[in-house]
Amino acid sequence: MTTVSALRALRGLLPALRPEWRGMLWSYLVGTVSALALAALTVLTAWAVGRAVVEGEPPGAVWWAAVIGLVVLRTVLTWQEMDVSHALAYRVLARLRMALFDAYARSVPGRRREHSGRAATVAMGDIEKLEFFYAHTVAQIGASVTVFLAALATATVLLPQAGAVMLVGSAAVAASAFAWARTARRLGEEEQRERSALSARMVDALGALREVLAYGLAPRIVAETDAATAAAAATTRRRELVAQLVTALRELIVTAVVIGVIAVSASAAGVLSGSGAGAALSPALLPALVALAVAGVAATTEAATTLSQLHPLVAGADRVAAGINRPPVVSEPAAARRLPVGPLGLRFRDVGFAYDGREPVLASWFAEIAPGEHVGLAGPSGAGKSTAVALAARLWDPASGAVELVGGDGDAVALSELDDTDLRGAVALVDQDATLFHGTVRENLLRGTGTRPDADLAAVLERVGADGWIGLDDGLGESGVRLSGGQRARLCLARALVRSPRVLLVDEVTASLDPATERAISDVIAGFDGTVLIASHRAETLARCDRVIRIEGPGERGGQAPVTTRMDTAGTSPPSR
Ligand SMILES: Nc1ncnc2c1ncn2[C@@H]1O[C@H](COP(=O)(O)OP(=O)(O)OP(=O)(O)O)[C@@H](O)[C@H]1O
Questions:
Q1: Averaged pLDDT for residues 263-290
Q2: Same-domain status, 194 and 126
Q3: What phi, psi does 383 have (nearest 5°)?
Q4: What CATH number does residue 145 fall under?
Q5: How far apart are CA 571 and CA 439, in angstroms?
Q6: How many CA atoms lie within 13 A of 236 on its CB side?
Q7: Residues 141 and 178 in one domain
Q8: Is residue 298 included in any domain, yes or no?
Q9: Residue 382 Cα, ligand 1 centroid: separation in angstroms?
Q10: Which of 36, 205, 412, 416 suits 313 as a labelling partner, its CA being 20 to 30 A distant?
Q11: Same domain, residue pair 189 and 315
Q12: Is 301 inside a domain boundary?
């Protein structure tokens, strides 16, 4: 992979970081001025030495003032540089994390619960490496390039031939850095493979120690391990040797540049030709010119080495860019409509839906839940109950038809026409998995609701029967792992109720609960003063509803595209809540 393609991959993330352009520019400016100050100090010192030796003149007050000024500037900027780049790193990290989270939240994998903890860990690791790149490395490369150009321009003004020597030297240094990078990568990978194989062999042998001893394999394993160690050490030596050769080559090039600058200066002054004509450069300036050339070549070395080491970042940048650019499955309306006031009903109007590339789950499906009605959703496994609930929570949009919220006066608004905040304020979902967040009970209850007095939160805990075993300040551990399924379900229900929704969607939350907990949870749902749609297999849960809508299972559809007509919604149970 070339450096160009590496840069292209890294450039792909810039749109997500556009709001940070001022910080990046500032970080570049601070780094560049600091690097230029250092180069200027070196050149000024060399100039003063040249002048003192050749012309016998010590540096004057202006020189001292300039040097002291540069030292102070450099000190301040070094301290600033740390501050600026750390603050930028923090913001870059946050931006990339948020962009990735946002993309996942709006795209298919998040809604399918497809992203595993492992994928999330890889993505977060990638983002941390990229954070360093954007916050530190970009500015460093920019500063090196600027120092090189400034040194080249100054050297060319002083003596064009010296500028040419510096240009050739820099090109040679950059070429050697790129050539070495490929070899280094290959040897590094080889070394890594050999060391991993060695570790795996040791772990295997230790894991099977009884067999190793019983079969008398110990001497063989020691011999094999010795051979593998020697092979890994030989690769390490080869890599170190190449590194030393490259360093030696770089020093040789720098020496050649120094000699070249002296030679062209002497030639310009006519020393080499013996003509003594055209003293183009005062000998007092020679040390300054040499210092300039060395500073320029050093800056090239730094930039080329960093650029040639970008490859490990590229795969990460590609992964993060692919994550950030996932297409959303729901989009915000251009002009959002307002929600009807008062109690809300729910209508699935001729809804068609299929998970991508699969058989339709719902086709022209109609169901209506009146404001304040409690309706159960029944049907065999795979019929589409969870899908219907997910559509009502707008985790997906239907492919055809619409899911609507209907006001008491019949005024209907499709979920896709609503502002997301309005929708989330009106409709709450208690999901099958009953997932809680890391943090305290209070933090979980307040997710997405702003602030509420503790007394209100405590009242909701009491309502779901959780007040006896948990308090608002208690921590839940990661995803509420310290709780039983029933306890998690109660807290998830409490979290939904705290939002005071007008429509409560419940997906199979009682599925794996004991009868007593199921009853307790069903009691709370039955007492909810609003519209309820609850998907469940449990007869007792469904019996508490005003009405039950049944969705046919795939086996009941006779291989046809599943169509549920208005008639299907008529199957009811007597209200018993
Ligand atoms: N994220 C998804 N991606 C692809 N197919 C899915 C997805 N979720 C569900 N399905 C498929 O859609 C169909 C309906 O699934 P759904 O979960 O809605 O049924 P259900 O009635 O709730 O089933 P259960 O009672 O077992 O929870 C099934 O065939 C299922 O395999």
A1: 73
A2: no
A3: -70, -30
A4: 1.20.1560.10
A5: 43
A6: 9
A7: no
A8: no
A9: 5
A10: 36
A11: no
A12: no
Judge if 532 and 438 occupy the same domain: yes
Report the relative pairing of strands 531-535 and 503-507 from DSSP bridges. Answer: parallel
In this structure, are 164 and 93 located in the same domain? no
Number of CB atoms found within 10 A of residue 384's CB: 24
Domain closes at, from 329, 359, 387: 329
For residue 54, give both structure tokens.
């050749």
Q: Which two tokens stand for residue 380?
A: 């065999």
Q: What is the pTM for the complete model shown?
A: 0.65
Range of the structural domain that residue 471 is part of: 344-570
Question: What's the one-letter identity of residue 456?
Answer: D
pLDDT per residue as tens digits for the range 185-229: 888 888 888 888 888 888 888 888 888 889 988 899 899 889 989
DSSP letter at 567 equals G
Q: Confirm or reject: Cβ of 357 under 6 Å from ligand 1.
A: no
Contacts of 269 (CB under 8 A, 6+ apart): 278, 279, 280, 281, 283
Which bin fits 300, alpha (ψ -120 to 50), beta or left (φ > 0)? alpha
CA of 101 to the centre of ligand 1 (A): 24
Q: Is 304 a domain residue? A: no
| Shared-domain flag, residues 264 and 392 | no
User: Which ipTM value was assigned to this complex?
Assistant: 0.97
557 Cβ closer than 6 Å to some ligand 1 atom = no
Distance (Å) from CA 537 to ligand 1 centroid: 14
Q: How far apart are CA 311 and CA 553, in angstroms?
A: 51
Ligand 1 near 469 CB (within 6 A): no
| Residue 511, domain member (yes or no) | yes
Question: Does residue 555 sit in the same domain as residue 463?
Answer: yes
